[in-house]
Amino acid sequence: MQALSVKVATNLSSDLKAATPDRQKGIDRVIDLLEGLLRLRAPAKPGDLARLIGAPRSTTYEIVNRLVTAELLDYVGNDGRVYFGRSMQLFGAAFADVNTVYRRAVAAMTALAAETQVTAQVCALRGSKYVVLDSRSGAALHRITSDVGVEVPIPWTASGRLLLGHMTAEAIRAFVPDEDFRLPDGRLLNREDFIADVMTCTAQGWCETTGLADHFTRCFAAPIRDTDGLCRMTLCLVAPVDTAPDQHAIFLARLRAAAAQLSLQEPSFP
Amino acid sequence: MQALSVKVATNLSSDLKAATPDRQKGIDRVIDLLEGLLRLRAPAKPGDLARLIGAPRSTTYEIVNRLVTAELLDYVGNDGRVYFGRSMQLFGAAFADVNTVYRRAVAAMTALAAETQVTAQVCALRGSKYVVLDSRSGAALHRITSDVGVEVPIPWTASGRLLLGHMTAEAIRAFVPDEDFRLPDGRLLNREDFIADVMTCTAQGWCETTGLADHFTRCFAAPIRDTDGLCRMTLCLVAPVDTAPDQHAIFLARLRAAAAQLSLQEPSFP
DNA sequence: AACGTTTGTCCAGTATATCAGACAAAAAAT
DNA sequence: ATTTTTTGTCTGATATACTGGACAAACGTT
What we know:
The structure is a homodimer.
Chain A: H1 26-40, H2 46-53, H3 57-69, E1 73-76, E2 81-84, H4 86-98, H5 100-116, E3 119-126, E4 129-136, H6 160-163, H7 169-175, H8 191-204, E5 207-210, E6 217-225, E7 231-240, H9 245-263
Antiparallel strand pairs in A: 1-2, 3-4, 3-7, 5-6, 6-7
Helix pairs in contact in A: 1-2, 2-3, 5-9
Chain A binds a DNA duplex through residues 23-26, 29, 45-47, 55-59, 61-62, 80.
């Protein structure tokens, strides 16, 4: 699902940009800083990071210098900016390598994108939002990642109707913020309709939506189930909204087959 | 370059497994824990992580719980084990997406692997060691990542003779630990010969080595230069040692062309 | 069933890390 | 050239985080 200009919120320990008289733990500052860089998606100078996360400059300089020493951040350019470093690439690669289901999901996503010539994605929950973990465009087998990492309200997405499938109606009401039911175009989704969708889609094992996050795409999602039956990731196809209906049926069939194949696997981790 | 059973060392703030009476900063514990998990390359329980990094159990439980809340770690399985979480996948993806040269290097690596049918890799320095950042096997275009993230002594590698090209002889002597000149098979490389190699390979713009880390592979490396002329990454091919010499020449030519193409690019970051 | 070991959380003490603000140097503005 | 603003580091105070060890529950062994 391709997200447009989305306002995101994560489980930060402190509100970004809000000056806080209270002292924060260094670990919380580190997490805020990394989350802030993820949101920014561009290198930044330590002073700018201090402002971004509302931390004292001396604290921020100390943390940045420590993370640079550990190569979680690298300096880039010649003007003091920092960005995610090689250690982050390696931690991410380690995540992908050891998680067998994830590794297979990425392979399936790549194959689906090549076969269908539309965008294929692997998606999951992050905090109380939906996020694309990885993405492939059918047109060219290099990574198109404009959506990867961008947190999107769950009700805007096909995957969201599968990722909450293990929750009770009450739990869903508590989990999804009220404001997330308002679509980018201003329409307000009915929460109870959404909950009904979650139940229906979970039962049928797939979901198809049109024109939620934007008016131009049709999204197909199928659950990747763990051995405990929970859907922690989904496999998705994102097609132009005017794709022929017979193509829809083909996309959905291929997607469900690929996701089912993944769900039959051994546990995600050895 | 494919590494065998390699003993690794990183810039840890405290020696792993060494109980330390001195109090550590929480941030240092976090970094030790992430480095330890990267080395372990498997999920682990918090108690085991405490032993691995020599931290008090109460401190480790607190840090693990905080990192799980932020999804830098995820619980896996049903027995309390944790491993790198979705946030790490996203930080790593953000690293790869925004670093233009890196993204192009991965595309070039993938193309080279398909074309040559041998393993292609993108490599860099990490601390005072060499590391594979990403890898593709020619035989199947899915990620073979047994070497990704494993730190290897620099003198064992073709890339190492390019990655140190910006250093003086004196700086190299200070940078590479003496023990790293001993190969896995017991042979001791001459440090001054190594330094001469660095100068020669840097000048000629490529390096080819055989039977350093192991006896079965021939490694070709070419520098990916930043706009400041420094070689911060290399592009490599790893071929069986008995590959025909005319194949060698073809591999090297293709490799150098691809790396040169990358080095002509705009700066790594906007 | 009884006993021993390990786990995960809790608690109080104290060493120290976080912070506001100072400061000099560098950069930007006039 | 001068003045103003920003940067990056430094310092001392004190609130607190890290720790060892205690504890109950869970698990493993006999």
